[in-house]
Amino acid sequence: ETGVTQTPRHLVMGMTNKKSLKCEQHLGHNAMYWYKQSAKKPLELMFVYNFKEQTENNSVPSRFSPECPNSSHLFLHLHTLQPEDSALYLCASEKGDYSGNTIYFGEGSWLTVV
Amino acid sequence: AQTVTQSQPEMSVQEAETVTLSCTYDTSESDYYLFWYKQPPSRQMILVIRQEAYKQQNATENRFSVNFQKAAKSFSLKISDSQLGDAAMYFCAYLDTSGSRLTFGEGTQLTVNP
To answer: Does residue B99 carry a pLDDT above 70?
Structure first.
């Protein structure tokens, strides 16, 4: 238990569906991240939020839409996804003070697009 | 851009023996942070060990230690007295001092044989 909780743990959605992934951290951190982990690829950073402001968008397609209503919650809204978007989506958080703090990960949300 | 390379896709070790996982990285920065994360079958990313580049002393955490060679840009992980629970995918990661982008290597799958 790292203090970062992701729901749902598994999601199957059709290409025309709209769904959301949720991440919540109980660590008092100010920075939150979305990473994508595909088979046989390194983890890919998608988005970074610091104090609710998006500080990084790593050229992610617009069919992925992040939302950070407060420092404890982060969402990833999904719409009109493609089968190649099937992957493990990992949320992470850290203090957000740019001092090289450890980043803590959630257990991930397995997404399958059919 | 920083890159992290793990040249060993798979490694195996006998229980109670020692194994070393390799990692090299490329950066033009002089101050940064390096991490080893473990990802067991549950897919939870767990921090194993952290090294600050400005510290010459190699980090240790119980049975885990690193060999940090800054000039060579090498950061290997040594696991002593290997246990069955050490079996996992191990990722080397680099964090720059802006603190917002954790770059991962491709991972090394470690098998521990009884």
So the answer is: no
